Amino acid sequence: MAFAVAPWQPGLFGSTTFVPLVLNWHSWKKVTNAMTLYFDTKVEFLDTDAVSTIGNWHLSEPLFAVASYSQERGGSITIFTDSGEPQRDVTYPVHPTLQVSALAWHPEKILLATGWENGDIHVWFAGHREFASVHGPHKGAIVLLDFSEQGGRMVTADAMGLLTGWRCDGQYQFLTMFSHDLRDVLLHITFRRTIESEVREEMVNLAKAAVAGDDAALDTLTNWRPRTAARSMTHAGVKDNHCFYVGTQNGLMYYINQGGTCMEVLKNNSVPVMQMLWHPKKDAVICLMEDMTIALYLVESTGILTELDRVKLSGHLSGKGGAISWSGNSLAIITGDLSVRIWDIEKSDNYLLKMDLPSTAASVLASSSSLDANGSSTNFFSNDSSDKLLASSFSNRKLQQQKFMQPTNEHFTCLAHSVVNQTLCAGTNQGNLYTWKRRAGHFDMPEDAWQLTNISTVRGAVKQCIWGFNELAKPCMLINCISNVYVLKEQPLLSVHTRDIWAVQRNAKAIYIEHAVGKHSLVQADFAITALALNQLNLIISNGRVISAYNIEKVQKPDNYKVDAYGDDSTADSNDKDTNLNVKLIQSFNAECLGLHIQNQNIFCLTSNEVVIYSIGGVMLNSILANGNEGKVIGMDLTGVYLSVFTMNGFVKAYDVSRHDPKLMFPGKSGYDLFDDFGEVILVKCNTAGTHLAVVIASRSFVPKPIIYCWNFERNQLMEHNLAGSTSIPVNIFWDTDESRLLAIEVKSMQPNQEQKQPANSNKNNSGSNSIESEVLVLFFSDKNKLSVLETRPLGSGEQMINLCVPNVITLDINIVKERPLQDFADLTKCDTNLRKIVLNFRLHIAEGNMDLAYRCIRSLQSPTIWTNLAKMCVQTSRLDVAKVCMGHLGKARSVCALRHAMEDDDLEEEAKIAVLAIELGMHEKATELYKTCGRYDLLNKMLQSCGKIDEAIRIAETEDRVHLKNTYFQKALQLKEKGDIKSALEFFEKTQNPVQNITQMLLDNPLALKRYMQNTTDPKMLKWWGQYIESSGDMDAALAVYQKAEDWFSQVKILCYLGKISKADAIARQSGDRAACYHLARHYENVGKFQEAIMFYTRAQTFSNAIRICKENDFQDELWTVASSSRNRDKAIAAAYFEECGSFKRAVELYHRADMLHKALEMAFESEQPEVLEIIASELTVDSDSELVNRCADFFTTIEQYQKAVYLLAKTKHLKRSLEICTEKGIPITEELAQMLTPEKNQLEEQERIWILTQLGDLLQQQGDYHTATKKFTQAGDKVRAMKSLLKSGSTEKIIFFANMSRQREVYIMAANYLQALNWQEDPQILKHIVTFYSKGQAHDSLANFYAICAQIEIDEYHDYEKALRAMHEAANCLKKLGHSQHALNNLERTIGDVKTILDTQNALKNGDNQAVIAACRNMLIKPETPPIRQADILAMLVRALGYSKQWAEAGRALKELAMKDNGWSTVGLVDKALVQRIAKECNLDFDIIWNSGRRRVNVNGTESDLDRDEEIEEELR
């Protein structure tokens, strides 16, 4: 039986097949799971009447075991392969009365352990023929048997409550480790699981990040494998955990630790735990109680259970186990009815899975059923949708859905979840299997993530459903129905397409074949078809074990056959012709087959290790093997006569199979040598020329790379094309059947959903935030070693690409073959091979940017379609020059003219010029896009209007082109007017630039409508027009009412004056203040002789000339003064002249002044002696005022001895020289404000004049004692020397230092240093530093040398520090060396330095105790005359100390006397220690006090006589 499954992704790689021993492509399968079928295979026992009891799959091998019982043989155990056949060369144990009560597979090794009702344990090892017996302590039936996570510990339990632990050693010997007699019925054993470490979790997250999808879409990547050849690495690097829990019938839970010690951890009040599952992400367990209570427990390291959550469900258990199962991170639960509940533990949410099939699945089920029932089919090649097929199968679909809807007393009995393909399966007591798949993405409702994809039916109630793996590492199910056992395999729908014939699998055993001329046939096989190959003469099918070859009748194409001959038009009369295609079975033969291809009469069959070549008759002709280094062959593909294969270890090869023996085209190439970040080859295809290989690979983290590689193996050049977005995955590749440069790639990508409307043909899943999009990229390679995109085509939901046959991309939409023309061939479906080649070459040249070659390809063609397509391509390539030629060939002169004008318009953007071409070609959408790109929304608005899309033009105008908004409204109003929709037209006319004219013209022919509209409108302009219209008819009262509604004051006053209602007109004019109304009323008053009222209203109307005229005519001087004061300057001048004639000079001067006639006002003020007016005028003068006027005002101020006002006036008006002259002559004090006013700007005067003014200003400020401001002015004048001199007079040390640093002028530096040298620099190190710095910067080396000499003298005189003095002398010497004219001074300084060094050496000798050397040196130096800065007193002091230390007391006394005579302050400065002086005085019998006091004297110029006498006494004593 076969059951169709609703598609949601395209499937296997077309005709390419491969052996997925590589790894479980979870993420790959997620996006390549195409239209699929479930094939069920009934397991045949050795005994026909055997009844199955229990079964189990191996975790990683395609093996399962089923225990059975028959009346003839008794109980037995059988091991089956995934194909449902018993394992050969195995002797299965049989017991006549007993049966197998428990069985379990080792998690890693091929080892099966079985427990029997008599307590026996039998074990089978891979490669062994017999089952081995394990001797144990059990006497009762083995009810439980399980292995630890890695199989290091096996645990068995019998019906009497005896629990035994076993260890399996390397020799497959089972040793008893412990036994516990729990004396209770044991219900389950749950081994402790190892939670993934943080490092492993990080590796998984890295693999997820490589695809950049969301978490739900990447759950399938958690089983990450680092090596291709590894079937499973689930336990790699994980230590086996031997701890486990065991539950009893009385509700007790025991924990057995690593050493086998048993402890009670849970007592559940006699409610037994029926099922216990380990949490996949944390150390926690889920327990299902007998009363349908589900509890979540946290597991501590000691095994203690801590309850975290508890839920009580309604319902009942259907059996002993299988009521709960993990589905990802959520828990799936069945409760004895026909529903499955999902409990999301982390989010504390629960929901029921949907039980209705989607429409696509229902339609496939219906079409499959229809085909099975009727044995006929419809035309499978169509350019349209599948509506006809769905309509024809509606009744069957309805019956099929009724079959699956709500059967009576049906409930779920078991469920199982597959992590590999995110599929949850639940079986019922009536033999139905419901399958849900978890979809990728985020959904508003969590239940939307699960979609019911299939409802299968088997015979018998389903007792067990267990997931396993087949030989191809694909998930499959073991269904145990007691009376029958089935293996359900998921099989993608097979399809093969060539240019003339194609085949599509309709159900498990049916293949639909159709020829391009319209003939078709349905081939029914005797087995479920898993592989398919096709050429024009043969059909090859296989179920993996048997290959059947069919012969197809040879069909002759008619002479006038075209590519579209099998379209809808040509098949209209198909009923009159024979449409049956004869297909006959030639031969069936046994052969292992994982994939099929056919070339000529040779069948290429992929096995688990190699590629075998058979003849049509089943004779083995040859084989293709890989060496040990390359690994076994795991995939192949055939394109034309070139076979490409890839191996387990990542090698790729290509063979030429056109002859009897395959010819290797190049040595096997390793993917590690070809690609960066290589992990595994997924797909390899060779082009029809046998020069290039298209390759899809996985990275080192075994995630499909979003890159298409194209390898030119002849030149060893690798090209690549990166897919847009890291979530894009290539799932299919097809080379064109004729053009070797062209290939198509089907790409899947994860895209976020958008709320806006999506294209109808895009594959969108609107229920989630993410969806899977399908598209086809058509690529080509060029001689420049570059892979380029020719075009991109989106695919619809459930649609997949199956071939590339230019001019079409062939797709399969559910079960409908469709042709999708390429853009270049959209209007060229009727073209022969030559034309197809010409157009294709042209398009490739266009894509490469070689327009000259492209034009050369088609210039000889006369087809308007070709030239139109070329012109459209010019829109894409922006080649307006070529487009103009194309338009000429098409005979469109107007279009050529428009294009020429656009190309010559320099103000037009390039995109806008291309948009003109697009408009001429009718490509309005492209033109819209181009206009938006360049921002020319005005032209876009114009285009939309010309296309009649006024509403869209209005939207553009309202948002982007508001300049033309009213014009757009006008066009919309005209459109509505033409349609007769007057009401809507009025609404848009009201929004136009001139609504009055447009509306009145439209309604003028309909007076009633015009009157009705005017009565309802509130637009003043419209009402004014209406009032004028009524006024023209003579109805003044009605017109007045309309003017009042429009608030048109002038028209009201005009009407009232006409009617003689002057008082009302006066009130309206006063109240409104409307100038026109006031002017009209003023004229009326003037005509009737009311001059005062006329003057008032002329003034309100601001027509002052009329008011002044009336005042002058009637000699109204006061009124004239009032009116002229608020009038314009011209009117003021007229009034001032009138007052001047009348002798009213004060008013005349003021009016002249207000009229800005200052000369006239000043002259009249002088004549009429009005000084106060002059001051006012002067205060208003500015820089721009007339110089003569300024000077006259200044002369006036000097005449009346107001010099300061004259200075300020001149300074303000920038007459700076005269202002300074007055300041100098009259001694006017210059304030800071005046100084700023007298400072000219840089560009105001010539530079010399500006410097002179600033210098004079500085001199004045210096004379007045404002040294700082003077410094500023000198600096602005550029005279920094004078600025420094002025600043030195201020005595501001900080400002002097700052100015010197800022000026950077030699003279300024020297002046600053000289100033600082006069300060107390000995006590301020900063001043000393500045002195040295300024002399150095000023290059005054002589001054600096002199300063250093002074420093040295001070160090010796004040501090007796010859060492510092020496350093200062060295600095002075360095300065003198820089001077070329001071050699004499340098020589003297060097001699002095030598003397100082001698003194320092003598001081060091004295410190070291060399007294004799000191005595000799001192006497030698005392012979020389004293030369500054050397002091003989310091030398005598050293001599005294040296003589004293050497105990030459007499000599010391004499030296001391000489010291006292030489320096009368020797004791004060401490030249000789007091203790030494005392000792010398004692040894020489001298008076110490007299001697000591002789060194404490100070010279006193005003000394008294007594002081002189005391000095004489001391000298006498010293003698």
Description:
With 1519 residues, the chain is of the alpha+beta class. Strand 5 and strand 6 (74-81) form a beta hairpin. Helix 13 (924-934) packs antiparallel against helix 14, helix 39 runs antiparallel to helix 40 (1306-1317) and helix 41 packs antiparallel against helix 42. It starts with a strand and ends with a helix.
Keywords:
disordered N terminus, disordered C terminus, 63 strands, alpha+beta, 1519 residues, six-stranded antiparallel beta sheet
Write the layout of secondary structure elements.
Layout: E1 2-5, E2 17-18, H1 26-32, E3 36-42, E4 51-57, E5 63-70, E6 74-81, E7 94-95, E8 100-105, E9 111-116, E10 121-125, E11 132-134, E12 142-147, E13 153-158, E14 162-168, E15 174-181, E16 186-191, H2 198-211, E17 244-248, E18 252-256, E19 262-267, E20 273-278, E21 284-289, E22 293-299, E23 305-312, E24 324-327, E25 330-334, E26 340-344, E27 349-352, H3 359-374, E28 381-382, H4 387-392, H5 394-404, E29 412-418, E30 423-428, E31 432-438, E32 450-457, E33 464-469, E34 475-480, E35 485-492, E36 495-497, E37 501-507, E38 510-515, E39 520-524, E40 531-534, E41 538-542, E42 546-552, E43 583-590, E44 595-599, E45 602-606, E46 611-615, E47 620-624, E48 633-639, E49 642-647, E50 651-656, E51 663-664, E52 669-670, H6 671-674, E53 680-686, E54 692-698, E55 707-712, E56 717-722, E57 729-735, E58 742-752, E59 770-781, E60 787-795, E61 799-805, E62 808-813, E63 816-821, H7 833-847, H8 851-858, H9 864-877, H10 880-890, H11 893-904, H12 910-920, H13 924-934, H14 937-946, H15 950-959, H16 965-979, H17 982-989, ...
